[in-house]
Write a structure and sequence with these properties.
Elements lengths: L1 E3 L5 H11 L1 H7 L1 E5 L1 H6 L7 E6 L1 H6 L1 H10 L2 E5 L1 H7 L8 E6 L13 E6 L4 H14 L3 E5 L7 H6 L9 E4 L2 H10 L3 E5 L6 E2 L9 E5 L8 H6 L2 E4 L11 H13 L1
Parallel strand pairs: 1-4, 3-4, 6-7, 6-11, 7-8, 9-11, 9-12, 10-12
Antiparallel strand pairs: 2-5, 3-5
Helix pairs in contact: 1-2, 7-11
Length: 259
């Protein structure tokens, strides 16, 4: 394996760009995983590895998994501890990174009577990652991300704890249009709302194909997306709080969809 020590190396500069810029990720069709858990989780995913970077200390610590990564990567490099720290999106680098190709297509096969979550312009990467992690844990069939946070943002990937690499996720520039397409395929679309006039989610029958939309943290579901919904549902709350955190609301919603 070639060793890289200089911070002005073109590969290192490009990895740094991919970590920090959504535009660079989109333009290049690449994203970066950082940290032992995420990097080695890619071994059990459908993502292809372009480049693998690891420090000597981390290589010895995770020799078997590192060897798998080396075999599956188009190229692999040893990097210095100093470089790993400069690249890192976290306070303390674990000394391992993987540059991966985005999926060729975001589309996924729809299951009959499938259960999907749609996210309307979510902005917080922590919320998005948490929702992805919870969706995988509960058994949601797929997630539609309509605008907002980049699904390959490093903070999203970390918050998802690897779930982003395994669950079906599709990004849509026109969520209302996507929801209309799903309706034409037999799915019922529900918009979540704190409005007390909406139907209590505990009383909704989700036995058929269903999509529930979670709105933006500050503004909820946009009017355009709301108009594409068949009906609105709400999570009954007995306390004085007017609304729930988006990730919490999504978790409760998904539980109700699947119970």
């Amino acid at each position: 394996m070639e060793k890289i020590t200089g911070k002005n190396n073109d590969l290192i500069k490009n990895v740094k760009k991919l970590l920090s810029s959504s535009k660079q990720r989109k333009d290049q069709g690449l994203f970066v995983l950082e940290g032992a858990r995420l990097v080695f989780d890619v071994l059990n995913s459908f993502y292809k590895i372009k480049c693998f970077l690891i420090t000597e200390e981390t290589l010895e610590k995770f020799r078997l998994k590192a060897d798998e990564m080396i075999n599956l990567s188009e190229s692999s490099y040893i990097i210095s501890d100093e470089l790993a720290q400069k690249l890192s999106d976290t306070k303390n680098s674990q000394g391992v990174f993987a540059v991966c190709y985005m999926k060729a297509t975001d589309d996924f096969v729809l299951k009959e009577n499938g259960k999907l979550i749609a996210l309307d312009n979510l902005q917080d990467p922590g919320n998005l990652g948490t929702i992805v992690r919870t969706a995988e844990a509960l058994g949601i069939d797929g997630i539609i991300v309509g605008g907002g946070c980049d699904v390959y943002n490093p903070k999203v990937l970390r918050a998802s704890m690897g779930s982003m690499l395994r669950i079906n996720v599709t990004a849509s520039d026109d969520l209302a249009k996507k929801l209309t397409e799903l309706k034409s395929k037999g799915f019922t679309v529900y918009g979540t709302s704190p409005d007390s006039s909406a139907a209590p989610i505990t009383e909704v029958d989700f036995s058929n194909g269903s999509v529930c939309v979670i709105g933006n943290e500050a503004n909820g579901i946009s009017d355009e997306v709301k108009n594409a919904c068949d009906s609105l549902v709400t999570i009954p709350m007995l306390g004085r709080a007017e609304s729930l955190n988006a990730a919490v609301a999504a978790s409760i919603t998904m539980w109700e969809m699947l119970r």
